[in-house]
Amino acid sequence: MSFKNILSQLNIFAQCKKYGLPLWQCPQFLFLVMGIVIAITAITFYAIATRYIADPRLVALMVLIITAILFIIANIINRSFERLAEASRMKSEFISVVSHQLRSPLSNLRWAIELLMSGRTDPITEKQLEYFKILKENSIRMGELVSDLLIVSRLETAKLLFKKQEFAFEDLINNLIKEFKPLARASNVEIKFEPEKNLPKVFSDPSQLRLVIENLLDNAIRYIKERGQVEIKLEKRDKNFYFEIK
Question: What does UniProt give as the signal peptide span (predicted)?
Fold first, then answer.
């Protein structure tokens, strides 16, 4: 093990961040607390033993034995916590990866169902339409479950962090509109975007903002009446941006 790895192991805050745990649940912090408790116990036992046992070598031996026993117990407990924390971290990472991988195929499946329901490819019967509606409802439900699972996973691991940067808000919306065009076309919905001219860049987390707008736009298209229109407005009011979907 290199010196750098040893230092990283000694960095309690870095290790707690790695496992996504608060300080009081982190194995390294608990081990440090146990070490302090062992030291206090050893000193207390030595102070008491010297008052009743005349032989200092016997006192030292007893202190060493008790300290060793406490250290072994603390190490076993710490390793158990480490295994639990590592298992929790791997579970959360697995859920996060699976959730991300499922979002795209589920969205494509929903858009394909919408296109088939519109009858633009081939005429469909009432019975087929009924089956397509069932497929659509279940694909929407699966998409919502995947989104909820991803959010819960991020909250559990304390990884719902904001990575702020400068970007053009209107570009983000335009990119989302392009992605939603197949769904809008299949639903006979027109998306109209009217941004204010010469808007400055915003300083925020584009991925989190994209997730919010994506959900709003998806709901707007899904629940609008046939041959409707979704209007998106973006303007600057004082120091804030005003965003509206209707």
Answer: none
